[in-house]
Design a protein that fits this description.
Layout: H1 15-45, E1 56-63, E2 67-68, E3 73-81, E4 87-96, E5 100-106, E6 112-114, E7 124-133, E8 138-147, E9 151-160, E10 172-180, E11 185-190, E12 204-209, E13 228-229, E14 232-233
Amino acid sequence: MHQYVRRTPARRASAPALINALDAISHRGRRAMRAAGSAALFAIAAPATLEAQADLVLNVTDAPDPVPATGLVTYSVVVENNGLGTANGVSYVMNVPAGARYAGFTAGTGAACSGMTINQLGPGVVTCTHPSLAFTASGSFTVLLRPQSQGTLTVNSTVSTTDFDTDPSNNSVQNTTTVIAGADVAVTLTAPATLASGTTTGWGITVSNAGPDPATALRSTPRQSAATSPGRSTSAAR
């Protein structure tokens, strides 16, 4: 004899209950996504804390150009700070090439230079320092050199700070100066120390050239005082 067992089929969830369950899951998902999105948006929109930094700019001009050999070249140096922060420990370095003599410096706004002695022949290094430059502030001074021979004088300069510089590309300058033939001409006049009234005399004129280059197309023009006339000397009454 066979006995049959009747099984009760599982109850299926009604359509409204299923929709409500799915909607609850979807609502929780959307709420989680909104919270995550808000946090990400806040992280993007929140301003970062930036530290003000320096940006030194170096400008160097040379004059005169051209210059005769042994003549004086003046390098006008201007260091500016275009950054938002203060530049501390500002240092300017000039590389004096061979064939040029250091002739000194003119201190500007708080700058001091050292490294070479007056009339010292290059190569050498001149360093000029400035304690600090605030935002938009500038420091200026001059460095003097004397090229010794005809040709081209090339001088490289750089500036730096002990702080971070946001744009080091404007911290270097190269100056080239044309050096032409130069001479050192001097004129010496000799005449009697005393001369009787109404008599004539002559002057001895000596022209010399200390070089280093030849002097050409020389011309000497003596200047006579109001008490003399050509070919005649007079003395003022006392």
